[in-house]
Amino acid sequence: MATCHSLVKVKGLLLGDPVDLHMFQLTGRVLDNDLSVWMNDELRTVKQFIFLPELQRMSVIVRNKDNSHEFFLKGSPEKVATLCDNVPADLKEQISVLTQQGLRVLALAGKKVNLSKDENMNTIRREDLEKNLEYLGLLVLGAKLKRATIPTLKILKNADIRCIMATGDNLETAISIGKKCGLLEKEPKKIHTASDICLDKDQDFDYAMSADTFNQLLLENKDLLKQAIHKLQVVARMKPDEKEALVHLL
Which CATH number describes the domain made up of 149-249? Predict the structure, then answer.
C-alpha cells in the first residue's frame, strides 16, 4: 500500500489517482521526491510497471534499507488470483459480499525477489515477476458519488438523453452504484451468454453485463447485441477500446 501506486510529489503535494492517494494516506507514511517512502524504515521504488487496463493491474519492485528487494502488485481480484499460489478458498464469496454493497475491491500480492543493488532494472520484464505470488489480502474502498452525479443524471433523463454506465469496476459494484445514482431504477438482468437475452418487448428489465460478455456477443452475435442494446444499462470491466466499440453500436 505504501509503494504500489502511481503517485508523484510536486511542490510538496501528492498527485495521482484518488484511489492510490487514499490508499497511501492510510499507511501514515511520507513520500519523498525520489519515490522513497519514509516511516520507521526506508523503502525505495526502483521499478514501476504501470497499470494497464488489459492486465487490470500494476506492480513495483521495491528496495529495502538492507538492499534486499520485494515485488508488490495490486489489481482486480479476479486477475490477481490467477497469479497467486495461496488464494483463499472463499475469495469469490468475500468479493461478492463486498461488491454487492457498492464497494471497490482490489487484491494485493507480493513476494521477495533476488536482485543485486546494481541490477539493470530496464532489462526486467513484468511477465517474469507477475507469477507465483503470495496473496496478501484485499483493499476495500468506498465508492462515493460525486456531488454532481445525481442532479446531472436527472437533467439528462428529463431531456430524454439515454445514459449508459461503461466502467472499469466490478459488475456487482457497478450495479450497486447505478442504483445509488438513479441510473438503475430496478434490479437489472445480468447477461452472461446470448441465451440470457430476451427480445420480448413485454419484458420490462434492463441489462447489465461484463466486458467479456460484451466482447463475446460482439464477435459471435453482433446482430443480437444490436437488437438488445436499447436495454443495456451497465457494462463493467471495460477497457478504453471496448468503450469506443460500445459507442459505435449505439
Answer: 3.40.50.1000
The CATH number of 8-141 is 3.40.1110.10
Residue/partner pairs of 112-119 with CB below 8 Å, 24 or more apart: 112/68, 112/69, 112/70, 112/71, 113/61, 113/69, 113/70, 113/71, 114/69, 115/61, 115/69, 117/63, 117/67
Q: Which long-range contacts link 12-15 to residues 24+ away (Cβ below 8 Å)? A: none
* Closest C-alpha to 95, from 85, 80, 73, 109: 80
Q: Is 78 exposed, middle or buried (0-12, 13-18, 19+ CB in 10 A)?
A: middle
**Which residues make up the CATH 3.40.50.1000 domain(s) of the chain?**
149-249
20-71 pLDDT tens trace: 888 888 888 777 766 665 545 677 888 899 999 889 999 999 988 888 999 9
Write down the pLDDT at residue 1.
79
